[in-house]
Amino acid sequence: MGSAGPEETAMKTLRVLDSSGDRVVEFDDSAALAECREHARALFERLLAGGSTAFKVNRRDGRPDEKVTDFAALENETVVVPRVVGG
């Protein structure tokens, strides 16, 4: 067995599905990716303020996908979809 090293920081993915396609922003909680994380936070907050909805997806242990409104609660993969307008 190897020695226990520092815990690895889990990479997170924010996927934005909109009229421009599928935009991906990857980040984690490390200092090295602080700029990416802040970009992801600003994007997430702007999209939700504009009416989009975010869902945690592909969750482990068979847990169902879940709506999320707090950036700090994001898990491995989060998908943001625009407000659906009926007509």
Task: Please specify the SSE layout and strand pairing.
Layout: E1 12-18, E2 21-27, H1 34-49, E3 53-57, E4 66-68, E5 77-81
CATH topology name, in short, is Ubiquitin-like (UB roll)
**Distance, first to last CA:** 61 Å
CATH class category:
Alpha Beta
Assign the structural class, choosing from mainly alpha, mainly beta, alpha/beta, alpha+beta, or little secondary structure: alpha+beta
Radius of gyration in whole Å, from Cα?
Answer: 15 Å
* Count of domains: 1
Give the rounded overall mean pLDDT.
86
CATH architecture: Roll
Portion of residues in beta strands equals 25-35%
Shape: globular
Q: Give, in order, the helices and strands.
A: EEHEEE
Instruction: Count every beta strand, where a strand is a DSSP E run of 2 or more residues.
Output: 5
Poorly predicted segments:
1-6
Q: Biggest β-sheet: count, sense, barrel?
A: 5 strands, mixed
Task: Give the helix tally.
Answer: 1
The largest beta-sheet arranges its strands as 2-1-5-3-4
Helical coverage, percent range: 10-25%
Mind explaining what this structure looks like?
- The chain has 87 residues and is α+β, with helices and mostly antiparallel strands.
- It has one domain: Roll (Ubiquitin-like (UB roll)), CATH 3.10.20.
- It is built from one helix and five strands, in the order ββαβββ.
- It has a five-stranded mixed beta sheet with strand order 2-1-5-3-4, covered by helices on one side.
- Strand 3 and strand 4 (66-68) form a beta hairpin.
- The longest helix has 16 residues, at 34-49.
